Amino acid sequence: MADDELEEDITGNGNGIKLEDFFHGQMDQLKADELLNQYEPDNYYLVRERVITESSEKPDEQFCISLHTRVNGQPKKVHFRIRQSYDLCVIGGLVFHSLSELVTYYTQVEIYPGGRLEHPIRPKHSCPSNRCVMAIMNYTKSAGTDELSLTAGDVCQVQHKNQDGWMWVAHVKSAQSGWVYDGMVEDLNSPNYDPELESCEFYHPSHREERVEELKSRPTGTYFLRPSAKSRSVSVLCVNCNDAIKKFEIERIPGGFNLSGKAFRTIDEVIQRYSVKYIDEKNEVKLREPLLRRSHAASNLPQEDIYAPNRASSTQIRECQLAAEFHCLFPKRRSRQRAWKRQRCILHRRQDENHEVLITSSSEVGRQPKGKPKGLIALEFAHLYPVCHGAYDRPHCLQLVIFNEVSANSTPPDVYVLAADSQAVLAEWLAALKPLCKCSKVCNHGQRSGHVRHVSTLEVAVKGVRNLNVSCKTAFVAVHFNGVVVAKTRSNRREQDDDSVLNWDEQFHFEFFPECIHTLSLHMTRRKTPKTTKVMKHDVRVSDLSLGRTSDFKVPAAQDKLQLCFSVRRVGYAVLQASKDYVPIRDIFLKSKDDPTECLRALAEVCTSEDLTYLARAIYKVFAYYDQVANLLTSLLLREIQSISCESEGVLFRTTTIGTSVLEVYLVTDEPMQFVRHCLGEMVQEIVNSNANLELKADRLLHSSGEMSDLDEADSIARRNAARLIELLNSCMRRTLRHCQANGCPAILHQVSVACQQETTRRFPQATARVLSAFFFLRLFCPALTTKFRQVFGAELHQEVSPQVLRSLQLAAKALQLFANQSKTMREACMELVRPFVCENTDLFNQLNTCLTASPDPVAPFSAGSSADAPSSSSAGAAAAAASSSPSDLQNISLTFELASVHDFCARHLDDLRNLQTRSGSQNLNTLIKATEFLSNRLSNETNR
């Protein structure tokens, strides 16, 4: 059955199975087995309330499904526990709004291999599914909380109970929900209580004699209603008939009540009838007024002593919650159209480790949510999966995946996507959810070495597709982990010389790759919507990927010559030790006295070009943890300037080195990206919103437009496009200059640029603009318009970007590249049209160079012996690093993980480091080699235990 049909059966009006068809009230497993034995093992089932004792392992699992089925031809009785939380039912991680919805779902999906809920066993009489309580005192809720105000005598249904004495209840009459303390209510013994009887005055059997005596003192016709102690389906109406108390039994029947052979739909109809007609014809007595309920004395303590623990416990509940506003995307089973909804999410940490995330209606800032939760995510069954840009076209996303662990059938998982308003909120929730979710926890290995853990990362690079059909103008690739989408390509462009080639060149990096993921899949589709037909699909088993190596794939399609090219690199560490074990390696890089970057440069020299990017990323995060990014970049880049000869001045800052690699890692952090958005944002928005086609090649214009047949007309359009492009670029550069003059340049980037400019001018007097062109234009502005366009501007775009817009941005990046190099000659003929932008803005370029790379205060290089015991906050470099790194950046840094990455690089290239140390005789390298060997031996011993 299709998902839409199944969902319609579950959520449709009147199509679900009713509660009275299968619910048997409170029943233990022995009685349930006896009842199931009366039926054939043909998938007969019932739902019951468990008998919970103090010794029960999981007292919050209130209900149970008992199924009589066949396994391998033999009859077998199976019991499935159901946990109820806030009027939501949780089974195997799946969440349902009622028992009826849960049962209806498993009539279509197998709940056990070969077993479905097919034949319900109907109870002899209907039973309520919730325990009921009655308030014994008046209580007014605390302001700004989600407590529930009660009046003595109010009856509520218990939907969730915490171990600290607080219960989430729903008022029977008003249907309002909220927290109440168990000291303010008394149990009404749910097997003998019918919530529909709350419409009249109801009293517990324990107060029967007291109420009878009170009824005798009241006028004739006074009455009250109580449940019968003999049968749960019978209620007793007690009436004062001339100082004699007469009792009338009201029997519960399907669809209503029966009194003296007359049927009524509700108790109100009974009261209304006998308020007009005689209920006791002999004494001519009618029902006049009910005996109103009054509060019961719960304690002899003063009132303030009763409320004090309630207030204290309520405060504790609010303090242990983590709450934030998210845009939520519910699973398809929960929401047919998968629309984003603004909701409030509350994280509850519970002592029984059944942690959960409540999803409630969005409320005003600073106020607690009201009413029944919209959803619940049981973290004991949830997998925290990574999300890369483009997966859901929203920034700051996390997703919680729940697989159906009850059903043996491979049903699609429930995927909850939460999009935060900021990176700081996302980082806070990720830090809180990681230790609570089921398979996002890192795995411990060994009984003696509990601090040793497995950790791995994954990087997927989607390159392009070849032999693409000409009719397929666009294509997208989605990356799936265990069938759950985690990333999607966004930008795509055809090669200029070959229309059958489509390139993406996008990389997706997944840190803390969960070990529960065993399959990586790539799905290629013609459109981005999920309902489009897949062009091709390829699965890769994670276990087949070599650790620390890049695996390249060229996947052919089944029917044609189509070929998808991508690469996967898995970086794995056999074990990850405690942070104190990596102190020697940390001190070598942070506290070297003679040459602080000697070991880092030596390690970069022996690393491959692929490893260099990962090494730079790990080193950057270690130094960012101690607020030493500015000093690290300054020292590395100054050393690079000093190592280049005068004859090789042309390659300065243009090649890939450890210094430029660390610089590129820094340039994708928050503050540089904000700087780029401020400088280029207006130009990008204008091009995207107008869907501008700024093509400068006349032949491409002639080829793309079917109406244009004259080459002269194409040349005219190309010149107009060039004039508009120059106008946009002039405005963009003037805006950049004004922003830099107002001290808008990132602090770390400005400090590093000043130091490098001083050293470059000293060694190469003719290269006065090398720092500006290499740092700001070639490594910041140009990539932001091409390869990193979606990463920089994706959050601000509210529409899909067309290929002609991407081409226009690519031409703008080429023009900025020519402007950065101050090129007077153009390699491409079409770029001759933007020569005026380069030649007429020389003064503007010099002003930018002076503003960004000149400063009266010189910057000191990296000083050895910086404090590495705690993050520094006193130095200028530390202040700049703190300013550039948002709280989310620092919270995402795992120092232990990054130090383990550095150790892994050292261990894999240990032989090369030994050879290098033999030639150079460096004492720092010798110390690094010894520390690596010691930690590797200890690591091996821990693994073999």
TrEMBL record:
Domain SH3: 128-190
Organism placement in taxonomy: Eukaryota, Metazoa, Spiralia, Lophotrochozoa, Platyhelminthes
Signal peptide positions on this chain: none
Cited InterPro entries: PH-like_dom_sf, PH_domain, Ras_GTPase, RasGAP_dom, Rho_GTPase_activation_prot, SH2, SH2_dom_sf, SH3_domain
Stretches of the chain forming a coiled coil according to its record: none
Swiss-Prot/TrEMBL keywords: GTPase activation, SH2 domain, SH3 domain
Protein name: Ras GTPase-activating protein 1
SH2 domain residues: 22-121, 179-291
